[in-house]
Design goal:
Layout (H helix, E strand, L loop, with lengths): L15 H18 L9 E4 L5 H14 L3 E4 L5 H10 L6 H14 L5 E3 L2 E4 L8 H13 L6 E2 L2 E3 L5 H14 L3 H22 L5 H8 L12 E6 L2 H4 L8 H7 L2 E4 L6 H8 L9 H15 L5 E7 L3 H13 L4 E6 L5 H21 L15
Helix pairs in contact: 2-7, 2-8, 3-4, 6-7, 7-8, 11-12, 12-13
């Protein structure tokens, strides 16, 4: 898989000059696409949480196509997280509590409305975590000073007809042309395809968003270890939530590879090998990505980071663990986690991978199926 990264976009990125040319071309396209007309419409706030990391370019371009101004909350910090924890229901997982904090931040910035879509399904025959469906209702119930929410329902489980009806209804309610709104959404969908193409060139989603925004990113060099890192996008791309996981791995000489960098066809084909289709979109991608990593000789080990209280992960992580032949480590974090314990586990895992590689040890199932005591 790692050998294919240089050829994903039809460019050889193995030389510094070629890499610089690639960045210049992509940054030029991103900057040209972000030339915005003088704003006369409302100002909409987008929380930097949950599926922001999958769809921010699309959402931002949609509102800009309508002539609206977009304001994004800053990266998660302690104040935002603590405020969200104080307001959210205790049963919510940490990323949902962080979303509360970002929504509260935007509510004080004078935005006219906050974009809080009711995400039900983003592809056929698969669904998103139920908490995503209830985000608008949870925010309204818990936060009294909240500005109006743009809570369009996105359900693509049966195709795009439901979404188109939602867009037309919202256009009529806001006095916009339904044709203009549908056209703005269709044009904005191309940004998600572009974002995914950047990821397949070897970047995580958070890095790809920065490239999309026109910020150059340094080329990644070789590392002593290659580790496949699994997890939800809002966990892996929020350095506050994941306790700077990727920064710590980089300090330890690790090249971290995420599911977004892999060929999606290979990922889906691997996931289809399970006896039953995974119910959740993200869970299906994680299972497929784990199986691809497990067969890739360039990957030394696999780390799965989950947040405490995540229902889908409680099953998906166990399914993955039982099928892995390479070293596998599950990391669980929440608002009470500290970096010290994380660093200790990462150091021990990396040390084990180096010893295993240097001694050419055989694969031993991390689940213990093939381990015997005497």
């Amino acid at each position: 898989m790692l050998d294919k990264i240089n050829n994903i976009l039809g460019s050889d990125l193995t030389t510094d000059s070629a890499w610089a040319g690639y960045c210049n071309r992509k940054n030029h396209v991103a900057l040209e696409g972000q030339k915005i007309k003088q704003k006369s419409g409302p100002r909409v706030g987008i929380p930097r949480a949950l599926f922001y990391y999958h769809f921010f370019p699309q959402w931002k371009r949609f509102f800009e196509n309508l002539g609206w101004e977009v304001q994004v909350s800053p990266p998660t910090n302690k104040a935002i997280a603590n405020e969200g924890i104080a307001e959210a229901v205790s049963e919510a997982c940490f990323p949902v509590k962080v979303h509360y904090g970002h929504s509260l931040y935007l509510s004080r910035q004078g935005v006219d409305l906050i974009f809080a879509p009711r995400l039900i399904s983003i592809e056929r025959r698969s669904y998103i975590c139920p908490k995503f469906m209830g985000i608008p209702d949870m925010l309204r119930a818990q936060i009294k000073s909240l500005p109006p929410l743009f809570d369009i329902s996105i359900d693509l489980s049966q195709g795009s007809r439901h979404l188109n009806r939602q867009l037309r209804q919202w256009a009529l309610e806001t006095g916009l042309s339904p044709h203009q709104v549908e056209q703005a959404w269709q044009q904005a969908e191309r940004e998600t395809d572009y974002l995914n193409s950047i990821c397949r060139a070897g970047f995580r989603l958070g890095e790809a968003i920065r490239i999309w925004e026109g910020h150059p990113m340094a080329k990644k060099g070789p590392a002593a270890l290659n580790i496949g890192v699994l997890g939800h996008c809002y966990t892996l791309n929020d350095s506050f939530v994941n306790l700077n996981l990727f920064g710590r791995l980089q300090e330890m000489g690790v090249n971290a590879v995420t599911v977004e960098m892999a060929d999606p066809d290979l990922v889906h084909k691997a996931a289809d090998q399970l006896p039953k289709r995974v119910f959740w979109t993200v869970g299906r991608d994680l299972v497929g990505g784990a199986l691809v990593y497990d067969r890739d000789p360039a990957i030394d080990g696999i780390i799965y980071m989950t947040c405490f209280g995540c229902g889908p992960d409680s099953m998906v992580a166990k399914v993955i663990e039982r099928r892995m032949k390479k070293p596998f480590m599950l990391l669980t974090v929440d608002e009470h986690s500290g970096e010290a314990g994380l660093i200790t586990r990462l150091e021990a895992f990396c040390d084990m991978l180096r010893r295993r590689r240097d001694r050419v040890e055989d694969n031993i199932s991390p689940h213990g199926k093939f381990s015997y005591s005497h």
